[in-house]
């Protein structure tokens, strides 16, 4: 019988220190964790564990999905991976919410005199 070595969870992949996300738009922040037994992931903001609401979902693949960003979503987020051997938290992601402004410029190709 093959035996898989047991490992404490580890957050893997590229991890941004800062994210700038657009207000009133959906956004997903990914978290991939590795370990054995397979870890579960959770998300925390300001030390409080996030749960599914009408505004956001903690997805089964470890991602955090916002249905529509608001200014209140700014702040530091931490992904936490946990299995029976231990717990590891990610480096915080600092999220900033920005407004998108669109402008239109009209350039006249005729000379008005």
How would you describe this protein?
Strands 2, 5, 6, 9, 10 and 11 form a six-stranded mixed sheet that branches. The chain has strands spanning 7-12, 18-22, 27-29, 32-36, 40-45, 48-49, 56-58, 64-66, 75-83, 86-89, 93-98. By secondary structure, the protein is an all-beta fold. The mean pLDDT is 89. The chain has one domain (7-98): Immunoglobulin-like (Sandwich).
Uncertain runs are none
Structural class: mainly beta
CATH architectural group: Sandwich
Cα shape: elongated
Our count of domains comes out at: 1
What CATH calls the topology is Immunoglobulin-like
Task: Please tell me the overall pLDDT.
Answer: 89
Helicity level, as a percent range? under 10%
- As an assembly, this protein is single chain
Q: Measured on Cα atoms, how large is the radius of gyration?
A: 20 Å
CATH class: Mainly Beta
Percentage of β-strand residues: over 45%
Task: Please sum up the structure shown.
The chain is an all-beta fold and 113 residues long. It has no helices and eleven strands. The strands form three sheets. Strands 2, 5, 6, 9, 10 and 11 form a six-stranded mixed β-sheet that branches. Strands 3-8-7 form a three-stranded antiparallel β-sheet, with no helix packed on it.
């Amino acid at each position: 019988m093959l035996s898989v070595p047991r490992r404490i969870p580890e957050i893997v992949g590229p991890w941004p220190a800062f994210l700038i996300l657009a207000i009133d738009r959906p956004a997903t922040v990914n978290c991939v964790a590795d370990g054995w037994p397979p870890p579960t992931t959770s998300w925390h903001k300001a030390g409080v564990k996030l749960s599914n609401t009408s505004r956001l979902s903690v997805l089964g693949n470890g991602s955090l999905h916002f249905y529509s960003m608001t200014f209140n979503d700014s702040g530091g987020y931490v992904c936490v991976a946990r299995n029976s051997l231990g717990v590891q938290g990610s480096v915080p992601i600092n999220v900033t919410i920005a407004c998108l402004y669109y402008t239109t410029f009209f350039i006249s190709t005729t000379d008005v005199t």
